[in-house]
Each structure stands twice: as C-alpha cells, then as structure tokens.
Amino acid sequence: MKPAPFAYVRPTSLDDALAELAGRDAKVLAGGQSLVPVLAMRLGRPATLVDITAVDGLDRIGVDSGALHVGAAVRQRAVERSEHARAVPLLGMALPFVGHRELRSRGTVCGSLAHADPAAELPAVACCLDAVLELAGPGGRRTVAAGEFFAGAMTTALTPDEVLLAVRFPVAAPGEGYGFGEIARRHGDFALAGVATRVHRGDDGTLLAARLTAFGVSDRPVTRDVTDLVGATGGAEQPLRDAIAELAAELVDTAGDAHGSPGYRRRLLTVLAARELSRAHRTAAPDRPADERPDRTELSPDRAGRSTGAGVAARAQARVEAQELVAVTLRVNGSEVTVRVPPRMHLADALREHLGLTGTHLGCEHGVCGMCTVLVDGTAARACLLFAVQCDGAEVVTVEGLGRADEQHPLQQAFSAHHALQCGFCTPGMLMSSYDLLVGGPVTPEELPEQMSGVLCRCTGYRGILAAVADVAAAHPGGVPEPMNCVARPLVGRGGGAVEGFAAGREPATPGDADGREVSAVTGLSVPAGAPTASVEVTSELTAPVDAVWAVLADVERMVACLPGAELTEVLGGDRYRGRAGVALGPVKLSFAGLAQIIDRDPADHRLRLIGQGSDAGGSATQADIRLRAEPGPGGGTVLRADADLYLSGRIAQFGRALAGDVSRRLFEQFARSVDAAATGREAPAARRASPLRLAIGSLLAAVRRRITARRRH
C-alpha cells in the first residue's frame, strides 16, 4: 500500500508554509500518523505535502496565562512524558489511550485535532476543557473555540490554506476533578464509545458545574452540561447509570457498524459516563493549595532525557517534485549514509531496498501491525508511517543494530530462552518495541499486555514474548543496555547504487562506475569497526623465493591480477585504487565495484595491509581488512600468510559465517597459487575467474567435513 506521488517541501518560516498552501492542492504534514494511512489507502491524493516541523516556534510547549500551550510540532508522547501534562490532568489521562507508544512518538497533538476523527480522544478532551485553537492563514491569525472547530467527521473550521499553529488547554482550577474512559476492541484502537468528564466543586464541596463529552458515538465530539444529573445523584455511580440512560440515547447518533450497533454503543456510553462522572466528582479537590497550581513552566527533559518538544530539529528542504529524487542523510545503526529517494518512499522501504536492512518487516503498511517498528531519534516509530524524506538528519536503529550473532542483546537472549519466536515475522517489531518500553525504566508484568499491544502477534509465541520482556525488565530495572551493534559498516540494499558513502571519510558521490552507479570518491577508507562476519587465516607454502613473492605483492597491478575475478580500473593516488571483483557460488553471481587502500607497507618485513569496500547492484556490500606477510620458507621458498576480517551485508550476508569463510578461504588459496606462478614467471591461473562449481563443491565438502569431525568429537 503506497501513496500516490506527491511533491514535498519543508519550509522554515510560517510565511513560506502558507505560500506553499496558497492556491495548491496541498496538505499539511506534521507527525503524519493519521495522514499517511489515508495516503497509503489512496483515500487522499494531495499534489503537495507541506512539512511544518522545521517552522520556527511550532515545537513550543509550556504553561502561561493559565493555559498549556502545545505547538503544532509537539509530539503526543512528548506531552505524555513531560511534567506539563500535570497542569492539565484530563489531557494526561487521555494520552495513554491515543494509539500506541510507537504512534504517539511521532503523532502530534494538533495533528489529531486537525484530523478530527470522531472516535479520537484528543478532540473530546479539547471540547470538554473549552480549549482554544490558534489558526493562521493568508488573512492573518485567528482563534477558534474547540466546540466550534469540529464541524463533522474529519471536517473542521480549518480552510485548505490555513495551518493549525497551536492549541491552548486551560490548566486545572481548584475544585476540579476529571474522568476519562473508553471501550475499544483492543488497547490503541479507536474507541467504540468514550467519555471525558469534568466536575467543578466549590470550597464547601457544593457542586458548581459538571460536563460530559462523548466521542465515538457521533460524527464529532458531543458535549453536554450534566450539572443537574450529577447534583441529583450526589455523584454516585449506580444512580448516575439510571439517570444518564436517556441522555446516552440522545448522544448516540450513528447507524452502527460491524463492531457495534447503536444499542450496544448506548449501553457502553451509559456505563462509561456514570463511572467517569462519579470519578470526577470524587476527585474534585476544593482544598487544593493555590501554590500547587502551575502558572508558568518551561521546557523540561522527559524521563528518557529527551526534549519534550518535537525532538531532533528538522532540516529545511526545498521543494522536491513528485518524480524527483531527494538526498536523505541518516545515521543508521552507527553508519552515516545518504540515499536518493522519491518523496513518497517510506522509511521502511528505504531501509530494506536501499540499505539491505531486511530485518525491518512490512505487513499492513498503514500503521496497524507494528512489524516495521524501528527507533527514530531514540524512540520507537512505525517505519511505514514515516517518509524517508522526513527523517533527514535522524538517528535510526533497526533490529540489526540491537546485537550480533556472537554477542546478542539481553532482549534477544531472553527471546531465544523463552522460545518467543515462532514464525519470526513479528520478532523484529517486538524486539524494538520492547527495547523502547524498557529503556525508560521498570515495567510490571501486569502492564506488559497493554504496553506491548502495539505489535500484533497472538500466536503460540506470544506468551513467551511477554515472559521474555518481563525477565529483562526484572534483570535491568534501571533500563536495558543500549544497542550493541551500532558500528560503521557498508549498507547497500537491493537497489545497490542509490546509497552514497559507507562509514567515514567520504566526499559527495560522483558518477563513473561501468554499471552507471554512483560510487563514493573516498578520501581515506576507515578500518571497519565491530565484529567481522567472518575471519580467515590462510598459510600457503610457495616455491618462489621471498623477494620474488614480495615483488609481486608490492606491484599493485600484478597483485590484483592474482586475485580471482578481480580487475584494477583506476589508480587514484595515495595508495588508493578503484576496481571490480566478481565471485560466483552456484547460481549466485556477484559483481562488486569498490575502492581499496594500502594503509601499511613494510618492504623490510615483507608485510602489507590493505582495506577495501565495495557493493554490487544486486544488494550486497563488503568491507575487508586484509593482512599479507611473506616469510622465508623451507628449500628457498616462501610462506605466505594471509589474514582477513570480512564484513558482509545485504544478500551476501545471508549465506552464513561458515559458508562465507569457506569461500573466502578458497579464494585466498587460489590467490597464493597465482602469486607463486607470477613470481616464478609462469602464467597466473587466477587471472581467470574462479570456477563457480569448484568453489561451491569445495565449500560444501568443507562444511560436511566439519560436521563429521564435530560428531566424532562427541
């Protein structure tokens, strides 16, 4: 499910944003958690999206003049975690019901109000509290009361060329109590019926006012004054049920659907309204000290140490037309990469197709299943509800960055121990969601079903998942360890050439590869970090004397000619070289274009060290740290030692460590034979491409021998 093409722009001023909206078929984009599903299902097809997250001042949140000011770019989860929500208790009560954690990480408070879904929680809160919304358009700025803002299902007082700048929620006054409740099919779904309540009592406990706002039962939030009902029943729940039944019948204005008939919704509303009005009546505190009422607060960090505003400051982006490509630079699992993508490409597709990170799974593609959950700037988010262009400058961590095969993250270890895997399709999303949950501190086992409901899995592994997360929560009450595999490495996906740069020391990409791909002009390659995919040690006895062997190794052109399937294409200077290399394993044929650099050469010790990196158009990437040393051997010959650490990603990484190591070992053995032939004046047999059949059979036989040896040892 992909959106139709659209142009994209991210201005830095309100005037520029309004200019983009004027006279265009355009929509405002802030969090996008409501808008992107509409686009994905082709229910909306705007020509332009105007991203307002870089507009100065829209990330402001604070309390002044008796109201909580929430700017248009402030995330729902930021408000939920902040101290500011204490100033407006009803808002704090409602926010945990808004979608799931992963949605609230990117969704904005104002975005929910502007979307105006009849079953959404925040419009009901705004109406119940008489919030005021600030709008800006070509005619200037204006304010609209919440009760007048919502005109119908997904219809508001906003005109197409206006922007909702902020909402102001009145802070709680002495003597006010609140209640909030809803019934949904599962936690995070839109409500079948819900209520927000406010009760105000005087200093002597006398009831002054009571208000009820119902949602999910009509085409907009419906507010009623229920002071007489609450006063007549003394705020007791059971009498309220009897008294409010007639009002519930009046408020429910829907034909019903597959999830609930009008009669069912009336019953739900009756029970919820009585319960939450009674709660609000009980919690109203006339004697609340005045000094506990916040008059003004400033921005403060949330419990994870992140800003309560919109998060990492968004960069400006000039207008990109629908059919153009835009360069998006991200730091993904510790590697800085730049991908060139169309505006409508999801982050999930960019991770999978351009960077080869296929652990991010795609299911529904409109934000329901949670399989695509990743960390964006430190919090969990749905990668299918984020356009890659929105994430320019962001820090992204996928399941590949959580841990390594030889050193798993505690969450991965717990999932394995509790058999919390089954088919494995939900596993990456569950891991990233649970990491996000536990990084903030302890969670009780009773909270887990609700907190983990953002990722759909109810197979036989579900109980194991909850048990695994509970174990890690108990073992790490202060928060789980950070991701353990975020190191610089090459990232190339199925599209291959859309990635510019690998890890460090790169310049802007320049054309020049024979495949028409863009290859980085690297000023200095870096030694790969982290644990290698495979390590190879090959010792070969050559007949040629050591000086003759060194003469071959010291001459880069002669040495490359000895590498199976390799070709030198360009000498860049400074011991840097560009070239191609091909390898085949059965039906799999890989052709790598890349760069190499000699970083250490010792003629006296006959020692050489070089590093290289390359990628192919089919979605594979390699890095290698190779060390060669020639020593005098018996009978006047040479002992050639080759040690290499290999770092693989993309398709080639799917072969597994043992097979990758076997293939690499046989390539080095062929290299040694070719060096010996070149040093003695004979034709180098490795100048021809390595035989796919010979490599495949040799590697498989080696694997069989290892298994036989292992069985004999046992």
Structural overview:
- With 714 residues, this protein is of the alpha+beta class.
- It has 20 helices and 30 strands.
- It has a seven-stranded antiparallel beta sheet. Strands 19-18-20-16-17-21 form a six-stranded mixed beta sheet, sandwiched between helices.
- Helix 13 crosses helix 16.
- The longest helix is centred in the last third of the chain and has 23 residues.
- It is elongated and about 110 Å long.
- About 9% of the residues have low confidence.
Number of strands: 30
Give the number of helices.
20
Low-confidence stretches: 289-311, 501-523, 686-701
Overall outline = elongated
Largest sheet, if any? 7 strands, antiparallel
Q: Determine Rg (CA atoms, Å).
A: 31 Å
Cα separation of the termini = 52 Å
Strand order of the largest sheet: 24-30-29-28-27-26-25
Strand proportion: 25-35%
Q: State the helicity in percent bands.
A: 25-40%
Secondary-structure class: alpha+beta
Mean pLDDT: 85
